[in-house]
Amino acid sequence: MSKSLENLSLILVLVPIVILLIQAILRGFTIFDRGLISIILALISLVGFILSIISLLKKPINSWKLILAIIVFIIFMSWEIWRFSNVSVIQLIKAP
Length: 96
Known about the structure:
Layout: H1 2-26, H2 36-58, H3 64-84, H4 89-94
Helix pairs in contact: 1-2, 1-3, 2-3
């Protein structure tokens, strides 16, 4: 049970971040003007982050994968929040 929770949380944290980074590379590193898609992927990643924390609290194992996923999530979301700090929600939804 906890192994499947661990795998699910890893997938939910890392897949949206990888998708956003691939999209950023394809758009020439204009990462943060994708609007609603970016918000949805960030929320999926947030769910994975929460599941990672729950998984670590339930069974404190020496899982470097979960710790790495948490660190990557924190770094990525701080960057995302910093870049979005001057953008209103309406502008995000209207962005292509």
